[in-house]
Every structure is written in structure tokens, then in C-alpha cells.
């Protein structure tokens, strides 16, 4: 019995020291930048910020909006609250519509250190902003 208790304690200690190996937590409250280069002529890259209460700030290629997010152990659902209004050139508007559609279809998430993958029909990779 003492060995079982020791093994259990060691497993708990290992999980708290090595979260990447024990399953990393969702990065609530962090700024997540889409892992893609900016569009030519712009420095803007889409960004997500998701709070624990489910509110989200979504900055696309040219518009910003709010959303509701439900996060489970490995599942995620993103629902935009406000329909974005186009305020820039047609190429960026099309990219916004496509990215918003892709975000609305994600069903799962997985974290690898500073990278968060959102998957559905398409996988989107976001990097945690650490500065």
C-alpha cells in the first residue's frame, strides 16, 4: 500500500511540474495571434482573446468583433456575437469572411507549449503572445 501511495504522489507532482506532458490547459486571458504572415501592405494579423467566462475579442484582417466561446477538455465552439461591418478593401473583406467561417466551424483544440491549434474542417494555429 505505501508504494501505491508513493506512486500516486509522484504522479501528481510530475503532472504539476510538467503540464505539457500531463495535458496543457487552455490559455484563457492570453492574446493568441494567428500563425500567418501579415497581408502585403499591412502589419495586422488576426488575434483572439478568450476569457474564462466565455467572452471573446476577435480581431480579423480588417474588423474587430465580439464572440461567445465554449471550451471543454478538448472541445471548443466559437460563435460570433456581432456581424462584422466591412471597412476595408475587398481582398481583406473576403479574408475576414473566410476566417470567421473557419472559426465558427472549429470543434477541437490542442495546445503544444506556446502554440494553440483549433481544428475543424481546417486547422488554425495560433501563437501565444509572450511580450
What features would you describe in this structure?
By secondary structure, the chain is α+β, with helices and mostly antiparallel strands. The protein has one domain: Lipocalin (Beta Barrel). Helices cover 27% and strands 32% of the residues. The protein contains 3 helices and 8 strands. It has helices at residues 2-17, 19-22, 90-104, and strands at residues 31-34, 47-50, 55-59, 64-71, 76-80, 108-112, 115-119, 123-128. An 8-stranded antiparallel β-sheet has the order 5-4-3-2-1-8-7-6, with helices on one face. The longest helix has 16 residues, at 2-17. The termini are far apart.
Shape field: globular
Q: What is the number of E strands?
A: 8
Largest sheet: 8 strands, antiparallel
Mean pLDDT: 85
Give the strand order of the largest sheet, numbering strands 1, 2, ... along the chain. 5-4-3-2-1-8-7-6
CATH architecture designation? Beta Barrel
Number of helices: 3
What fraction, in percent, of the residue positions are helical?
25-40%
| Count of discrete domains | 1
Q: Compute the gyration radius: what is it? A: 18 Å
Give the H and E element order. Answer: HHEEEEEHEEE
Strand content: 25-35%
Poorly predicted tracts of residues? 6-22
CATH fold title: Lipocalin
Structural class: alpha+beta
- Write down the CATH class: Mainly Beta
Amino acid at each position: 500500500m505505501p508504494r501505491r501511495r508513493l506512486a500516486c504522489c509522484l504522479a501528481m507532482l510530475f503532472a504539476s511540474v510538467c503540464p505539457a506532458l500531463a495535458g496543457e490547459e487552455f490559455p484563457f486571458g492570453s492574446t493568441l495571434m494567428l500563425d500567418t504572415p501579415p497581408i502585403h501592405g499591412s502589419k495586422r494579423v488576426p488575434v483572439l482573446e478568450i476569457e474564462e467566462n466565455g467572452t471573446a475579442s476577435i480581431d480579423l484582417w480588417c474588423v474587430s468583433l465580439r464572440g461567445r466561446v465554449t471550451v471543454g477538455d478538448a472541445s471548443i465552439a466559437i460563435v460570433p456575437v456581432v456581424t462584422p461591418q466591412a471597412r476595408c478593401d475587398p481582398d481583406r473583406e473576403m479574408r475576414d469572411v473566410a476566417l470567421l467561417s473557419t472559426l465558427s466551424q472549429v470543434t477541437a483544440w490542442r495546445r503544444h507549449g506556446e502554440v494553440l491549434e483549433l481544428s475543424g474542417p481546417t486547422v488554425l494555429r495560433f501563437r501565444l503572445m509572450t511580450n
